[in-house]
Specification:
Blueprint (H helix, E strand, L loop, with lengths): L2 E3 L2 E4 L17 E4 L6 H5 L2 H18 L15 H25 L3 E4 L3 E5 L2 E4 L4 E3 L2 E4 L3 E3 L12 E2 L1 H4 L8 E5 L3 H12 L3 E5 L11 H14 L1 E3 L3 E7 L5 E7 L2 E7 L1 E4 L3 E3 L26 E4 L2 E8 L10 H16 L14 E3 L5 E5 L2 H11 L3 E7 L4 H6 L5 E7 L5 E7 L3 H4 L1 H9 L3 H6 L10 H8 L6
Parallel strand pairs: 1-7, 2-3, 2-8, 3-4, 8-20, 10-17, 11-12, 11-17, 12-13
Antiparallel strand pairs: 5-6, 6-7, 9-18, 14-15, 15-16, 19-20, 21-22, 22-25, 23-24, 24-25
The structure holds flavin-adenine dinucleotide and nicotinamide-adenine-dinucleotide.
Cofactor: FAD
GO molecular function, one term: flavin adenine dinucleotide binding
Enzyme class: oxidoreductase
């Protein structure tokens, strides 16, 4: 079989799928995906997780408002109905997207995996060869499983499979201390399962500001059984359909019995599925494909003509809004080689949809202190409790807070860290201010803040910063 020639080949149908716009109407495009069309966010990630997070949050809230004078009890959680509702919608979008692409005259879809055989040629699993002057690597990332005996048990799940199980397990053991572990611990706890979260170190959400990590760990331990400093040794299936999981803790063996194990111990880039390391620069430690600011893939530090990468395969952030932002840059650069744009990675925010919610943008306090010392400016830090503003009183909140970091002289905002109700929404005006260069006082006093909305916590935090501007 000869090599099929295309104008553009895209490998990966997550954010990669959004690259095909009107500029390609009269050209030949191939899109290759060996997994589920639409990629991680739609099928296994952001979208379905939040569809479980929302009912879990509502159920949890309902059961925890005694202090407001309301006693409520969630009596029935219909997991299978919830699952069917969620995936009826998602599967239809994935199938519809695939059918739409297949129906376009200018696009050929290959539903299989592919790897590079030279810098501009790919071979699919069935042996088809495809070549193009422009190729985009958008193959995302996948879960990493710890290498312990029993990890191949059918009771072991990752985020790819756990949302499709038939019934809510009575007991769930979650391994890991990152975003995925935090979100699923809340989902299963909120929906009524008995949750144990076992983590190998003593810090949850390590990439966050340490005050957030510490306060979140305190809240997690109040809601579910949190076991830190546990080193996973073995998983054994029992004859009654349960599993016994063995850990080492302070030199002693600890065994936990459970009905389901969710492994959430990180994700690695799918650079190896492409054999990218043979033809391009791939970081040995992170397995990320190296790109420049225009998203061009590098070889020996230099861009390879016509080859781009975006999203989890080349981005340390592993976030959908970053993959999408990078896709917009690649989409432009593919057709404007003379005036390429660069991705703005200055203020990348993230939120963890656990309970309480967490959101951050910019530097942690530790990083901001280091920057202030290096650059010789004074750092302003303000921690504003949600419980001290009017809406926080309404909620009788005693947990949530906002931490803002700024340059004392210039009022430049350097970072924001929020734990509490609607943290993922509360942080957005700060992201806006940082992106458009508004100083703390300009932001606080240059606009109205709706009274008595929860956003007043941001206004008060800004006013409390003691910056000159
Ligand atoms: C449980 C979970 C929850 C998440 N929640 C959020 C969230 O709330 N907010 C957020 O911003 N981010 C979230 N993320 C992260 C987000 O999903 C990813 O950052 C994003 O989907 C990455 O998009 P991508 O286009 O790079 O890759 P993907 O969407 O993963 O697409 C890559 C595609 O490439 C295919 N592929 C891989 N190798 C090959 C090959 N060799 N040949 C052919 N095809 C191949 C795969 O099958 C896949 O379909 C979450 C992730 C998970 C796992
Ligand atoms: N709301 C969101 O934006 C969202 C939600 C879910 C996932 N995501 C993205 O998906 C990515 C992957 O999430 P994640 O939670 O799997 O990864 P993570 O990197 O956030 O956390 C992985 C955790 O597992 C621990 N770990 C690693 N190896 C281990 C081992 N062998 N034994 C025990 N523990 C081990 C790590 O110490 C870490 O705490 C995140 O980086 C995030 O960007 C985003």
């Amino acid at each position: 079989m000869g090599t099929q020639e295309f104008d553009l080949i895209i490998i990966g149908s997550g954010s990669g799928n959004s690259l095909i716009d009107g500029n390609w109407d009269n050209k030949k495009v191939a899109i290759i995906d060996g997994g589920t069309f639409g990629g991680t966010c739609l099928n296994f990630g952001c979208i379905p997780t939040k569809q479980y997070v929302y009912p879990a949050t509502v159920a949890h809230t309902a059961e925890h408002i005694d202090h407001l004078g309301v006693k409520a009890k969630v009596t029935d959680v219909n997991w299978s109905a919830m699952r069917d509702r969620i995936f009826a919608r998602i599967d239809a979008i994935s199938n519809g997207g695939l059918d739409y692409r297949k129906g376009l005259n200018n696009v050929t879809v290959f539903e299989e995996y592919a790897h590079f055989v030279d810098t501009h040629t790919l071979e699919t699993d069935s042996g088809a060869r495809l070549s193009a002057p422009q190729i985009v690597l958008a193959t995302g990332s996948r879960s990493v499983l710890p290498n312990v005996p029993g990890i191949d048990s059918s009771l072991v799940h990752t985020s790819d499979t756990v949302m499709r199980i038939d019934a809510l397990p009575a007991r769930v053991l979650i391994l890991g201390g990152g975003f995925i572990a935090a979100e699923f611990a809340h989902v299963f706890n909120g929906l009524g399962a008995e949750v144990i979260q076992a983590h190998r170190s003593d810090v949850l959400l390590r990439k966050n500001d340490s005050e957030i990590s510490q306060k979140f760990a305190e809240q997690a331990a109040k809601q579910w059984d949190l076991r830190l400093n546990r080193s996973l040794k073995e998983i054994r299936e029992n004859s009654d359909g349960t599993a016994t999981v063995t850990f080492k803790h302070k030199g002693k063996i600890e065994e936990i019995e459970t009905d389901l194990i969710l492994v959430a111990t990180g994700r690695r880039p799918n650079s190896d599925t492409l054999a990218a390391e043979k033809f391009f620069d791939v970081d040995e430690k992170t397995a990320l494909v190296s790109v420049d600011a225009a998203q061009r893939v590098l070889k020996d530090g230099e861009p390879v003509d016509g080859i781009f990468a975006l999203g989890d395969v080349s981005s340390m952030y592993q976030l959908k809004h970053v993959a999408n932002a990078e896709a917009r840059i690649v989409q432009y650069n593919l057709v404007h080689p003379e005036t390429m744009r660069e991705t703005d990675h200055r203020y990348v925010p993230a939120a963890v949809f656990t309970h309480p919610q967490i959101a951050h943008v910019g530097l942690t306090e530790e990083e901001a202190r280091e920057k202030a010392q290096d650059e010789g400016f004074e750092l302003a830090v303000k921690v504003q409790n949600i419980g001290d503003v009017a809406y926080g009183w309404a909620m009788e909140d005693s947990v949530g807070f906002v931490k803002l970091l700024a340059n004392k002289k210039t009022g430049e905002l350097l970072g924001a860290h929020i734990m509490g109700e609607e943290a993922s929404n509360l942080i957005q005006p700060i992201i806006q201010a940082m992106s458009f260069g508004l100083s703390a006082h300009e932001m606080a006093r240059g606009q109205y803040w709706i009274h008595p909305a929860l956003s007043e916590v941001i206004e008060n935090a800004l006013l409390g910063l003691e910056t000159e501007k």
